[in-house]
Amino acid sequence: MVRPERPSHTLKILSANVRGLRTDIGDLTHNCVLRHSTDVVVVTETWLNNEVEPTFGKIRGYTQQTRRDRPERAGGGVAVCFKEGVQAQHLDVVPPPHMEMMFFRVVLADRSATLVCAMYRPPRQGPSSLQYLTGALDDLMLEHRCRHVLVVGDLNHHLEQHVYESLQTVQVLTDHVTFPTHIDIGVARDEATSRTVWLWDKADWAFLRHDLSHTAWGTLLPDGADNMSRALTSRLLALQRRHVPLRDYTTKPTDQPWYGYRCRVAAEAKYAEWLRYKRNPTRRNKDLHRAACRRMVVSSKWAIQKLEDDLPRKLRSPGVGNKTWWSLVKEKQGISHQDSIPPLTKQDGTGAVTFAPEKTQAMVVSRSLAAGPAVAGRLRFGGVPLPLQEAVKVLGVEVDRELKFDGHIKHIAKKASHRVSTLRRVASFLDRGGRLDSIQRRALRLVDAADLPDPLTQIEPVSPLDSLEYRRDVAALVVFHKAQVQGVAWLAELREPPRIATRSTRTVLTSGDAVEVPRSRARQHQRTFVGRVSKMWNIFTAAVPHIHEMNTQSVKLAANRC
């Protein structure tokens, strides 16, 4: 049976966020690239630098990787390679230094060219990379004569959704990744274990030395080395339990490897301060809670640093094999081959999830006023009675016991009223168009006054300059012509349906190019772009014939004559 060949006018693209190419090059090559016979391989977060040779990661049957590494900081990086036979050219495009992207021109079998952008945007970089693509893709496609464009990589666009949607709208792009690509789950590393923590910094050393000095060692230690060592050990352990405080510490399966006893103590102290601040929200309790948060951060950083310092010692030990070494490397990267969702129930069938009664909200949903007192005091959670509330918050929305949102709407309206009242005070300073109009009118008065030959002349001067408002109207008609007649893609939202044919009168002229004017009594809506320009467009089409045969320059000239 002959395997049918895939059409050569298509591309099979692989995009992978490997978080360390040196450790995952084998998995990427055999399980992804060679198995699926991809044409283009885009790898993000390679974590490579200038010390890695350019020939690293060369895949048989593919070109050498074109890389863009981070020159100064660790992490990040983009690498791209193509299957041998694919006509690809690396474009000499120099983006800003902090942006990790590369551009390629790929020619298909039908001689059409596609612009491929390989990109990685760190989560904390901001919208600058997406804004750069929005303005640069058109110029690159025109310069290199590309018909299509592909943006491949890890953009982390969920953190800049508004800018990402603007990029899709302006460039008419379609997002083909409609499924989740990253899931955070708690990894059950080990079983829960308990150990005893001796608090040596709180030991009573004075009484310990007193007991050691008054011990009758001659009668305590019998004959024989083994008997003497056992007796000495028993005596020292007994004195340790008497004078050194201890605490039993139980690790949880979902704890991080660095999360130990000190972090647990700091977390419990932080939680206690939070409960105190919740019961009595004073300034002092707030400062105490902030101090506890800072101590928690310091303890976490100390524990993480200690774990990193102990890692080389583990790797240098003689009992470390290949499996242990790679497991430590994967754990360093935050990945584990034994990733699993922890069980939600215990062996006896009870739930493994614990709840905090003080964080639980209870409400009786009923229109009857007697329903609340009938249940009050009887509803318990973990043995703690839950107080009933008149309203609860669910995902930020306040719902009362009648399942109404009156209180929430009142709160939102009050907050919006405060913001609008504040905005009204500074609205005059934010109106840039009104400020420019006033400046132009003043300048025209000065120009007209300078052109008068005689100050006693009563002839009203005629200014050779058009007002800014008139120029804005002409520009609005040109933009509406692009959206309505030329059908520009990124102006599709401005298109209006054609007006239904009506009978012309002496006061109202109709045209086949007229559009429906949005009907509204709100003055704010009437001042919007579509509501204002649609009226001017109907007047313009009635006065200017053959509007479909005119280009942008002709429309601009005709609008200036009207």
Automatic annotation (TrEMBL):
GO BP annotations listed = cell adhesion involved in heart morphogenesis; larval heart development
Where does the sequence pass through the membrane?
none
Query: What Pfam families does the database record attribute to this sequence?
Result: Exo_endo_phos
**Which GO CC terms are listed, alphabetically?**
extracellular matrix
Read off the InterPro entries from this record.
Answer: Endo/exonu/phosph_ase_sf, Endo/exonuclease/phosphatase
A GO MF term: catalytic activity
- Describe the location of the Endonuclease/exonuclease/phosphatase domain by residue ranges: 14-224
Looking up PANTHER family in the UniProt record yields:
REVERSE TRANSCRIPTASE DOMAIN-CONTAINING PROTEIN, TRANSCRIPTASE, PUTATIVE-RELATED-RELATED
Instruction: Write down what this protein is called.
Output: Endonuclease/exonuclease/phosphatase domain-containing protein
What species was this sequence derived from?
Chionoecetes opilio
Question: Mind giving the lineage of the organism this protein is from?
Answer: Eukaryota, Metazoa, Ecdysozoa, Arthropoda, Crustacea
